[in-house]
Amino acid sequence: MSVSEAFTLIDGGAAQLLIVADHASAHVPDDIDLGIDEALLTDHIAVDIGVAEVSRLLAEQLGCTAILGGVSRLVIDLNREEEAPGLLPVMSDGHVIPGNREADLAQRLMRFHHPYHHQIVRLLDGMASPFILSVHSFTPSLASDPHARRPWDIGVLYNEDDRAARIAIPLLTEAGLLVGDQLPYSGKLLNATMNRHAEANGIPYLGIEMRQDLVGDVEGQRRFASIIGPIVLQCRNSLA
Fold first, then answer.
1. Which of 36, 108, 113, 160 sits in a 20 to 30 Å window from 72, CA-based?
2. DSSP 14
3. Are 74 and 100 in contact (CB under 8 A)?
4. How is domain 2-239 classified at the CATH fold level?
5. In angstroms, rounded to a whole number, what is the distance separating the alpha carbons of residues 17 and 62?
6. C-alpha–C-alpha distance, residues 120 and 122, integer Å
7. What is the tens place of the pLDDT at every residue in 226-235?
8. Distance of alpha carbon 24 from alpha carbon 217, whole angstroms
9. Domain range list for the chain
């Protein structure tokens, strides 16, 4: 395992497969004051719950590398374009993030966003025929929209390249999961990291969103890793 301020690398082996987890960390560096209750750092607004653990399990299972984002998305959202709204959030699901109002966006880009994405480029450049698995998780309910139902166990997201999605969705369904196709979000809107590193370069990828309450403990994390791993291999082998 290799750790920097911007990312953590999990070295599970040399397979031509990269696991990318933009929102795997709730870490806020000591010199950054977000002005929020620290309890919020365990909430979905700060981190994709279960993603770091599932990504580690998958890296070991698949014999590949995983890159985990090193800071909370409240510090900077690594899954946003550099000019996108929400890159440096001042509000998230009804919670104000006052420390970001006067923050130096350029400094946070240079400190976290650029090193993270440059490392992804380096990892992909070292693979002759890469496949990417993008791992996220979603909350079953939003405080700002409590009546919206999010019943899916897992979502599959993509923008223009739906090759792996079309393979994975029926396999995830056969495994007993309730699958959302472009749910609870659409990859047409929220797909920045995969747009940049996969779609722009013709690299096949699978983007998944696991429901957080189903991967919040060790049993759930192991269950999802055991389901997702073989399906990722089928996608990669079909598209290699």
1. 160
2. -
3. yes
4. Aminopeptidase (3.40.630)
5. 8
6. 5
7. 999 999 999 9
8. 15
9. 2-239
Number of residues written out for the chain: 240
- Contacts with 100 (C-beta within 8 Å, 6 or more apart), sequence order: 34, 74, 88, 89, 90
pLDDT of the residue at 205:
98
pLDDT at 144: 58
Identify the weakest region by mean pLDDT among 34-43, 87-96, 176-185. 87-96
Tell me what the mean pLDDT of segment 98-118 comes to: 97
Q: What CA–CA distances, in Å, run from 16 to 19, 49, 59, 119, 199?
A: 10, 26, 11, 16, 17
In angstroms, rounded to a whole number, what is the distance separating the alpha carbons of residues 146 and 143? 5
In sequence order, the 6+-apart residues with CB closer than 8 A to the CB of 51 are: 21, 23, 24, 68, 135, 136, 137, 210, 215
Per the structure block, which two tokens stand in for 37?
Answer: 């209750």
Mean pLDDT for the stretch of residues 185-209 = 96
